Amino acid sequence: MNERSSSNSQYINVQSSLAVPSEPVVAYITGDGIGSDITPVMIEVVNAACKKAYGEQRKIDWQEVYAGQKAFDLTGEWLPKDTLDAIQRAHIAIKGPLATPIGGGIRSLNVALRHQLKLNTCMRPVRYFDGVPSPLKKPESVDIVVFRENSEDIYSGIEFKAGDALCEKLISDLKTVYSVSNIHYPKQSGLGVKVISEPASKALVRRAIQFAIDQNRKKVALVHKGNIMKYTEGAFCHWGYEVVVDEFGGEKVGGFYEIENPHTQEIIQVEDIIADACFQHVLLRPESFDVIATMNLNGDYLSDALAAQVGGIGIAPGANIGDTCALFEATHGTAPKHAGKNKANPSSLILSAEMMLRHMGWTEAADYVLQGVENAINDKQLTYDFARFYEGVDPISTSAYGQAICKRM
Ligand code: NAD
After folding, report:
1. What integer is the mean pLDDT of 258-283?
2. Helices (H), 119-230
3. Which NCBIfam families match (predicted)?
């Protein structure tokens, strides 16, 4: 990754290189609910880290764009076109949580953002921070990055409601045209279509392997349920191995495929694992996982389950990545009952910003953010959600936690 000095051109190609000017525009969405508590703190922490790392040489030009309630109040739209255009122009954006508008004609603003910006890969790193309460005996063994396909699977929105005329017609066609005989309650069954394509599967696996190469990771697991869903999940696995062999020169050695990392000449092992076994193994021996590549639904379940293993459901960061754009985001929701109280934990958004800085190639600033968070948690400078697990630890506010991080970089 390299830096370009011109301040008004920024171009990103996530798969290969990212050229970032010294004052890049980063679009941000404050978010609903606790978004207005955590987003200013995230910006303060990132600005402090950049200043510490680069002085006045590099800094972020933050540009607020609107989505959710704030956008609706200002424009009458939940997700204005101007917002999508601004994110596309900036190529890099970060967002707080967004409430799903009820009766707004949008199933989910998050899903709409991912679809409209073609952010086909969701990336969720899961690791343990010393001092975070966890249900595991050895949570420090968890250091796994989940790559989840973002655009397909059962999330494609092709669903038919039980009893609707279209649903009944489809069931009738399935029976007569396709000889499907095992729909046991035709009049009372809803239907959903699972879409898994070769291009999207290959793009996801390609990105996961490239990440393993760039970050010197040792293993990639393709997680699927292909033993049951042969032509969707099974196909994902098959296409994944085609990427391994055709694009990365992988070779089968015993039960694995091996790829040589061109930077280090070390071996990256690729295997596939059935999803239910994967859920057992990540709990019982998490140290044997490194990078996971999987489809939308498996990835949704796995990333939250893994985050919970390290006590990090409130601090797990995330990114949605496409070919020309990346949107980093807090993975939790709007926590409406805590909104405006300056008590929510901003770590998920701050660690998403840390991923964003790394993605931009600003690794020194990213390291400062990480160091600040690690040290603050270690020193028991904790917001209410973590402090309540420790006797004698008084919770601090969202803004005080931000200051504690800045002081400890
Ligand atoms: P939630 O994540 O808002 O809340 C779940 C629990 O976690 C609550 O007890 C909440 O108080 C707590 N919590 C969440 N984030 C916290 C933080 N940063 N600090 C301290 N405690 C925190 O999930 P929900 O209640 O199911 O959803 C509320 C709204 O958020 C819904 O409208 C939902 O659609 C939306 N949502 C948005 C996103 C997103 O924008 N990525 C993700 C999930 C839910």
Report:
1. 96
2. 165-176, 198-214
3. PRK07006.1, prok_nadp_idh
